[in-house]
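User: Small ask, check this?
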Amino acid sequence: MSYSEFVKSGRQVFRIGFGAMGLGGVFGYYDDDYFIRSVHSCLEQGVNFIDTARAYGKSEELIGKALQTWPGEKPFIATKALATPSPVDAPWLGWQEPVSAKYAYPKGSIRASAEQSLKLLGVEEIDLLQLHQYWAWESNDDWMEEMLRLKEEGKVRHIGISLPDHRHDLALQLVRSGLIDSVQTIINIFDPLALDCLVPICQENGVAVIARAILDEAGLTGAIGMETEIEKTDYRYQYFDCVPREVYIERVNRLKPFIPEHADSLAELAIKFVLHHPGISVALTSMHVHEYAVQNIAAAGSTPLPAEVFEQLRHKHRFIKNFYQARRHV
Protein backbone atom coordinates (compact mmCIF):
# COMPACT_ATOMS: atom_id res chain seq x y z
CA MET A 1 0.00 0.00 0.00
CA SER A 2 1.24 3.50 -0.85
CA TYR A 3 0.71 6.17 1.82
CA SER A 4 2.23 9.59 2.39
CA GLU A 5 1.74 12.43 4.84
CA PHE A 6 -0.70 15.00 3.56
CA VAL A 7 1.38 18.16 3.90
CA LYS A 8 0.84 20.03 7.21
CA SER A 9 -1.89 17.62 8.33
CA GLY A 10 0.12 15.03 10.22
CA ARG A 11 -2.11 12.39 8.61
CA GLN A 12 -1.00 9.52 6.43
CA VAL A 13 -3.27 9.25 3.40
CA PHE A 14 -3.45 6.64 0.68
CA ARG A 15 -1.98 8.19 -2.45
CA ILE A 16 -4.98 7.19 -4.55
CA GLY A 17 -7.99 9.24 -3.48
CA PHE A 18 -11.69 8.60 -3.98
CA GLY A 19 -12.78 11.19 -6.53
CA ALA A 20 -16.46 11.52 -5.62
CA MET A 21 -17.78 13.47 -8.59
CA GLY A 22 -19.21 10.21 -9.93
CA LEU A 23 -21.47 9.90 -6.88
CA GLY A 24 -23.46 12.76 -8.40
CA GLY A 25 -24.43 10.57 -11.36
CA VAL A 26 -22.54 12.52 -14.00
CA PHE A 27 -20.77 9.40 -15.31
CA GLY A 28 -23.84 7.17 -15.41
CA TYR A 29 -26.71 6.23 -13.13
CA TYR A 30 -26.44 3.86 -10.17
CA ASP A 31 -28.74 3.73 -7.16
CA ASP A 32 -27.80 5.28 -3.82
CA ASP A 33 -27.14 1.94 -2.13
CA TYR A 34 -24.62 1.02 -4.82
CA PHE A 35 -22.78 4.33 -4.35
CA ILE A 36 -22.71 3.93 -0.56
CA ARG A 37 -21.32 0.41 -0.95
CA SER A 38 -18.68 1.85 -3.28
CA VAL A 39 -17.49 4.20 -0.55
CA HIS A 40 -17.43 1.42 2.05
CA SER A 41 -15.60 -0.93 -0.29
CA CYS A 42 -12.81 1.58 -0.92
CA LEU A 43 -12.47 2.41 2.77
CA GLU A 44 -12.18 -1.30 3.53
CA GLN A 45 -9.31 -1.54 1.02
CA GLY A 46 -7.34 1.24 2.69
CA VAL A 47 -8.45 4.32 0.74
CA ASN A 48 -8.79 7.12 3.29
CA PHE A 49 -8.98 10.32 1.21
CA ILE A 50 -12.28 11.42 -0.34
CA ASP A 51 -12.61 14.48 -2.56
CA THR A 52 -16.07 15.89 -3.23
CA ALA A 53 -17.76 19.26 -3.81
CA ARG A 54 -20.98 21.14 -3.18
CA ALA A 55 -21.41 21.19 -6.98
CA TYR A 56 -21.40 17.38 -7.25
CA GLY A 57 -25.12 16.80 -6.85
CA LYS A 58 -25.85 14.23 -4.12
CA SER A 59 -22.17 13.38 -3.61
CA GLU A 60 -21.77 14.99 -0.17
CA GLU A 61 -25.08 13.60 1.01
CA LEU A 62 -24.14 10.05 -0.02
CA ILE A 63 -20.71 10.32 1.58
CA GLY A 64 -22.40 11.49 4.77
CA LYS A 65 -24.70 8.47 4.73
CA ALA A 66 -21.76 6.16 4.08
CA LEU A 67 -19.83 7.63 7.01
CA GLN A 68 -22.81 7.14 9.36
CA THR A 69 -22.51 3.38 8.95
CA TRP A 70 -18.72 3.18 8.62
CA PRO A 71 -17.24 1.66 11.81
CA GLY A 72 -13.61 2.49 11.06
CA GLU A 73 -11.49 5.63 11.30
CA LYS A 74 -12.93 8.70 9.62
CA PRO A 75 -11.30 9.32 6.23
CA PHE A 76 -9.73 12.62 5.24
CA ILE A 77 -12.60 14.60 3.70
CA ALA A 78 -11.92 17.32 1.13
CA THR A 79 -14.73 19.32 -0.43
CA LYS A 80 -15.08 22.48 -2.50
CA ALA A 81 -17.08 25.65 -1.96
CA LEU A 82 -19.89 26.21 -4.43
CA ALA A 83 -19.31 29.10 -6.81
CA THR A 84 -22.12 31.56 -7.49
CA PRO A 85 -23.89 31.22 -9.82
CA SER A 86 -23.86 27.46 -9.55
CA PRO A 87 -22.66 25.16 -12.36
CA VAL A 88 -26.32 24.35 -13.00
CA ASP A 89 -27.03 28.00 -13.84
CA ALA A 90 -23.77 28.61 -15.69
CA PRO A 91 -21.94 25.33 -16.44
CA TRP A 92 -19.07 27.14 -18.14
CA LEU A 93 -18.29 29.35 -15.14
CA GLY A 94 -14.66 29.08 -14.20
CA TRP A 95 -13.71 26.61 -16.89
CA GLN A 96 -12.72 29.02 -19.65
CA GLU A 97 -13.42 32.65 -18.87
CA PRO A 98 -11.88 34.39 -15.85
CA VAL A 99 -14.33 35.98 -13.44
CA SER A 100 -13.83 38.19 -10.41
CA ALA A 101 -13.72 36.78 -6.90
CA LYS A 102 -16.67 38.95 -5.90
CA TYR A 103 -18.75 37.49 -8.73
CA ALA A 104 -17.79 33.87 -8.11
CA TYR A 105 -17.78 34.05 -4.31
CA PRO A 106 -19.83 36.97 -2.96
CA LYS A 107 -19.26 37.78 0.70
CA GLY A 108 -20.77 35.07 2.88
CA SER A 109 -21.10 32.48 0.11
CA ILE A 110 -18.05 30.41 1.13
CA ARG A 111 -19.28 30.22 4.70
CA ALA A 112 -22.79 29.25 3.56
CA SER A 113 -21.35 26.56 1.30
CA ALA A 114 -19.11 25.18 4.05
CA GLU A 115 -21.99 25.10 6.56
CA GLN A 116 -24.09 23.11 4.11
CA SER A 117 -21.19 20.74 3.45
CA LEU A 118 -20.74 20.13 7.18
CA LYS A 119 -24.42 19.32 7.51
CA LEU A 120 -24.58 16.95 4.53
CA LEU A 121 -21.31 15.19 5.36
CA GLY A 122 -22.33 14.84 8.99
CA VAL A 123 -18.97 16.00 10.32
CA GLU A 124 -17.94 18.73 12.75
CA GLU A 125 -14.85 19.71 10.78
CA ILE A 126 -13.96 19.60 7.09
CA ASP A 127 -10.39 18.39 6.67
CA LEU A 128 -9.84 20.46 3.52
CA LEU A 129 -12.01 23.20 2.05
CA GLN A 130 -11.07 24.22 -1.48
CA LEU A 131 -12.31 26.94 -3.79
CA HIS A 132 -13.84 25.14 -6.78
CA GLN A 133 -12.30 27.76 -9.03
CA TYR A 134 -9.54 30.30 -8.61
CA TRP A 135 -8.37 33.01 -11.02
CA ALA A 136 -5.20 34.51 -9.48
CA TRP A 137 -7.29 36.67 -7.17
CA GLU A 138 -5.77 38.95 -4.55
CA SER A 139 -5.19 36.99 -1.37
CA ASN A 140 -6.19 39.94 0.85
CA ASP A 141 -9.74 39.90 -0.51
CA ASP A 142 -12.94 38.73 1.24
CA TRP A 143 -12.70 35.16 -0.06
CA MET A 144 -9.43 34.50 1.76
CA GLU A 145 -10.58 36.22 4.94
CA GLU A 146 -13.67 34.01 4.93
CA MET A 147 -11.69 30.80 4.50
CA LEU A 148 -9.17 31.78 7.19
CA ARG A 149 -12.00 32.63 9.60
CA LEU A 150 -13.58 29.19 9.06
CA LYS A 151 -10.18 27.68 9.80
CA GLU A 152 -9.82 29.73 13.01
CA GLU A 153 -13.28 28.60 14.13
CA GLY A 154 -12.35 24.94 13.74
CA LYS A 155 -14.95 24.27 11.04
CA VAL A 156 -12.20 23.75 8.46
CA ARG A 157 -8.78 22.28 9.18
CA HIS A 158 -6.98 23.14 5.94
CA ILE A 159 -7.72 25.41 2.97
CA GLY A 160 -6.77 25.18 -0.67
CA ILE A 161 -7.79 25.85 -4.25
CA SER A 162 -8.80 23.80 -7.28
CA LEU A 163 -7.55 25.24 -10.55
CA PRO A 164 -10.25 25.71 -13.22
CA ASP A 165 -8.37 24.15 -16.12
CA HIS A 166 -4.86 23.58 -17.46
CA ARG A 167 -3.33 26.94 -16.50
CA HIS A 168 -1.07 25.92 -13.63
CA ASP A 169 0.65 29.32 -13.42
CA LEU A 170 -2.50 30.82 -11.90
CA ALA A 171 -1.56 29.39 -8.51
CA LEU A 172 2.13 30.26 -8.26
CA GLN A 173 1.80 33.54 -6.37
CA LEU A 174 -0.72 32.11 -3.94
CA VAL A 175 1.42 29.02 -3.29
CA ARG A 176 4.34 31.28 -2.38
CA SER A 177 2.15 33.37 -0.05
CA GLY A 178 2.06 30.64 2.59
CA LEU A 179 -1.70 31.09 3.04
CA ILE A 180 -2.94 27.84 1.51
CA ASP A 181 -2.30 24.18 2.24
CA SER A 182 -3.11 22.54 -1.11
CA VAL A 183 -3.59 22.96 -4.85
CA GLN A 184 -5.69 20.64 -7.00
CA THR A 185 -4.86 20.51 -10.70
CA ILE A 186 -4.86 18.36 -13.83
CA ILE A 187 -1.90 15.97 -14.14
CA ASN A 188 -1.69 12.98 -16.46
CA ILE A 189 0.54 11.46 -19.13
CA PHE A 190 -0.92 13.72 -21.81
CA ASP A 191 -0.74 16.84 -19.65
CA PRO A 192 2.23 16.70 -17.25
CA LEU A 193 2.92 20.45 -17.38
CA ALA A 194 2.27 20.98 -13.67
CA LEU A 195 5.31 18.79 -12.99
CA ASP A 196 7.55 21.33 -14.71
CA CYS A 197 6.84 24.28 -12.44
CA LEU A 198 3.85 24.15 -10.10
CA VAL A 199 4.67 20.88 -8.31
CA PRO A 200 8.31 21.78 -7.49
CA ILE A 201 7.22 25.19 -6.16
CA CYS A 202 4.56 23.51 -4.02
CA GLN A 203 7.23 21.18 -2.65
CA GLU A 204 9.46 24.15 -1.78
CA ASN A 205 6.60 25.87 0.04
CA GLY A 206 5.09 22.90 1.86
CA VAL A 207 1.87 22.88 -0.17
CA ALA A 208 0.14 19.60 -1.01
CA VAL A 209 -0.65 18.76 -4.64
CA ILE A 210 -3.86 16.90 -5.45
CA ALA A 211 -3.77 15.55 -9.00
CA ARG A 212 -7.04 15.14 -10.86
CA ALA A 213 -8.03 13.81 -14.30
CA ILE A 214 -5.15 11.33 -13.96
CA LEU A 215 -6.88 8.99 -16.43
CA ASP A 216 -7.83 11.88 -18.73
CA GLU A 217 -11.53 11.33 -17.98
CA ALA A 218 -11.12 7.61 -18.87
CA GLY A 219 -9.40 8.33 -22.18
CA LEU A 220 -6.15 6.89 -20.84
CA THR A 221 -7.85 3.61 -20.00
CA GLY A 222 -8.18 2.79 -23.69
CA ALA A 223 -11.95 2.52 -23.28
CA ILE A 224 -12.81 5.26 -25.79
CA GLY A 225 -13.06 3.97 -29.35
CA MET A 226 -14.36 5.36 -32.64
CA GLU A 227 -17.78 3.84 -32.03
CA THR A 228 -18.03 4.82 -28.35
CA GLU A 229 -21.14 6.91 -27.76
CA ILE A 230 -21.25 9.19 -24.75
CA GLU A 231 -24.66 10.25 -23.49
CA LYS A 232 -25.49 13.94 -23.45
CA THR A 233 -26.11 13.66 -19.70
CA ASP A 234 -22.55 12.40 -19.19
CA TYR A 235 -20.08 15.04 -18.00
CA ARG A 236 -17.66 13.95 -20.74
CA TYR A 237 -20.06 14.54 -23.62
CA GLN A 238 -18.06 16.09 -26.50
CA TYR A 239 -14.78 15.85 -24.54
CA PHE A 240 -13.09 13.37 -26.83
CA ASP A 241 -14.28 15.19 -29.93
CA CYS A 242 -12.61 18.51 -29.13
CA VAL A 243 -10.02 17.05 -31.51
CA PRO A 244 -10.88 14.50 -34.20
CA ARG A 245 -11.63 11.26 -32.34
CA GLU A 246 -9.15 9.29 -34.43
CA VAL A 247 -6.36 11.70 -33.41
CA TYR A 248 -7.05 11.09 -29.72
CA ILE A 249 -7.16 7.31 -30.18
CA GLU A 250 -3.92 7.33 -32.14
CA ARG A 251 -2.18 9.14 -29.26
CA VAL A 252 -3.52 6.58 -26.81
CA ASN A 253 -2.31 3.75 -29.06
CA ARG A 254 1.25 5.12 -28.87
CA LEU A 255 1.26 4.12 -25.20
CA LYS A 256 0.45 0.47 -25.83
CA PRO A 257 4.11 -0.61 -26.33
CA PHE A 258 4.59 0.04 -22.60
CA ILE A 259 2.10 -2.75 -21.89
CA PRO A 260 2.64 -5.31 -20.35
CA GLU A 261 6.35 -4.73 -19.61
CA HIS A 262 5.77 -1.72 -17.36
CA ALA A 263 2.07 -2.06 -16.44
CA ASP A 264 -0.70 -4.58 -16.86
CA SER A 265 -3.04 -2.03 -18.45
CA LEU A 266 -3.11 1.51 -19.79
CA ALA A 267 -4.98 2.64 -16.68
CA GLU A 268 -2.28 1.21 -14.44
CA LEU A 269 0.41 2.90 -16.54
CA ALA A 270 -1.38 6.25 -16.19
CA ILE A 271 -1.74 5.87 -12.41
CA LYS A 272 1.86 4.80 -11.92
CA PHE A 273 3.00 7.78 -14.00
CA VAL A 274 1.29 10.32 -11.73
CA LEU A 275 2.33 8.58 -8.50
CA HIS A 276 5.97 8.46 -9.63
CA HIS A 277 6.58 12.08 -8.65
CA PRO A 278 7.06 12.49 -4.86
CA GLY A 279 5.48 15.95 -5.02
CA ILE A 280 2.05 14.44 -5.69
CA SER A 281 0.30 14.04 -2.36
CA VAL A 282 -2.89 12.39 -3.65
CA ALA A 283 -4.02 11.35 -7.13
CA LEU A 284 -7.80 11.30 -7.58
CA THR A 285 -9.72 8.83 -9.67
CA SER A 286 -13.39 7.95 -9.84
CA MET A 287 -14.10 4.95 -7.62
CA HIS A 288 -17.88 4.70 -7.73
CA VAL A 289 -17.69 1.58 -9.95
CA HIS A 290 -16.47 -1.34 -7.81
CA GLU A 291 -14.53 -3.17 -10.52
CA TYR A 292 -12.50 -0.12 -11.55
CA ALA A 293 -11.89 0.91 -7.96
CA VAL A 294 -10.24 -2.43 -7.18
CA GLN A 295 -7.98 -2.10 -10.23
CA ASN A 296 -7.01 1.50 -9.41
CA ILE A 297 -6.19 0.67 -5.80
CA ALA A 298 -4.04 -2.26 -6.90
CA ALA A 299 -2.15 -0.02 -9.32
CA ALA A 300 -1.04 2.20 -6.44
CA GLY A 301 0.71 -0.75 -4.85
CA SER A 302 2.36 -2.13 -7.97
CA THR A 303 6.02 -1.83 -8.92
CA PRO A 304 6.94 1.82 -9.66
CA LEU A 305 7.92 2.87 -13.15
CA PRO A 306 11.65 2.97 -13.91
CA ALA A 307 12.89 6.56 -13.94
CA GLU A 308 13.77 6.42 -17.64
CA VAL A 309 10.27 5.23 -18.55
CA PHE A 310 8.69 8.02 -16.49
CA GLU A 311 10.85 10.61 -18.27
CA GLN A 312 10.05 9.15 -21.67
CA LEU A 313 6.32 9.35 -20.96
CA ARG A 314 6.63 12.82 -19.50
CA HIS A 315 8.53 14.38 -22.38
CA LYS A 316 7.58 12.39 -25.48
CA HIS A 317 3.86 11.75 -25.01
CA ARG A 318 2.53 15.20 -24.19
CA PHE A 319 -0.73 15.89 -25.95
CA ILE A 320 -2.10 19.21 -24.76
CA LYS A 321 -5.70 19.94 -25.68
CA ASN A 322 -8.57 21.59 -23.85
CA PHE A 323 -11.55 19.36 -23.16
CA TYR A 324 -13.20 22.23 -21.30
CA GLN A 325 -13.52 24.29 -24.47
CA ALA A 326 -15.85 21.60 -25.82
CA ARG A 327 -17.92 21.68 -22.63
CA ARG A 328 -18.26 25.45 -22.87
CA HIS A 329 -20.61 25.08 -25.81
CA VAL A 330 -22.64 22.05 -24.67
Observations:
- Strands lie at 3-6, 11-14, 16-19, 49-51, 76-81, 126-131, 156-162, 182-186, 208-212, 282-286.
- The radius of gyration is 19 Å.
